[in-house]
Design a protein that fits this description.
213 residues; alpha+beta; five-stranded mixed β-sheet; globular; binds FE2/S2 (inorganic) cluster
């Protein structure tokens, strides 16, 4: 165990552990969407977990930064807040924002982050890039709406690590989305209905048909 300071609070954490988990385990909130504790390598896609470390000349992501003795970390500096706000708004710029009619309303990580950080769930600086990809409701147990996906990769990771790898990222650039092999409907894919992807989805992209989300 080593000792470090986050936002003026001294904590102890295992050396080499990721800063994100060290902070969260000690009750210090750092927003995150794509981090998976069990994953060997951080995905680093959402860019919400930026922090500043004294001695480093640029902010780094807490999900990828290993804990070290004597670190002094700041999670709420103006630079960090600016970066997070931009990352958050970029996520919203291609997210189908329809909270009122979403199964995940009040149980959505985007909503929680907005509440914790005082962000608005609406675009202010960026324009909306509308998506209207088909919703896949072919599976008897769950629905996949790619228009609400935030590309956190959690469903892909859990499907590949703990199930049979029925889904992956497909297409490129702003067309990137989670898809089955050859983009076939879920019912025709090799999905084994474990529903782990649904359980890890932080937003309303993968939801159970019985609405027990
Ligand atoms: S949680 Fe660190 S980049 Fe997403």
């Amino acid at each position: 165990m080593v000792t470090l300071t986050i936002d003026g609070t001294e904590i102890r954490a295992p050396e080499g552990d990721r800063l994100l988990w060290a902070a969260l385990d000690n009750g210090i909130y750092i927003p995150n969407l794509c981090a998976i504790r069990e994953a060997d390598l951080p995905f680093g896609a959402c860019r919400l977990c930026f922090i500043e470390i004294e001695g480093k000349n640029a902010p780094v992501t807490a999900c990828s930064e290993p804990v070290a003795e004597g670190m002094v970390v700041h999670t709420r500096t103006p630079k960090v807040n600016r970066l997070r706000r931009t990352a958050f708004e970029l996520l919203l710029s291609h997210h189908h924002l329809d909270c009122r009619n979403c199964f995940k309303n009040t149980n959505c990580e985007l909503q929680r982050i907005a509440l914790r950080l005082g962000f608005k769930l609406k675009l202010q600086r960026f324009r909306l890039i509308p998506r209207s990809w088909p919703i896949d409701s072919s599976h008897p147990l769950f629905i996949y709406d790619p228009n609400k996906c935030v590309l956190c990769g959690k469903c892909v990771w859990v499907c590949q690590e703990h199930s049979i790898g029925a889904i992956d990222f497909a297409f490129r650039g702003i067309d990137t989305r989670v898809s089955t092999f050859d983009n076939v409907p879920l019912i025709d894919s090799k999905c084994d209905s474990c529903l782990q992807c649904v359980d890890v989805c932080p937003v309303g992209s993968l939801v159970r048909k019985d609405n027990k989300v």
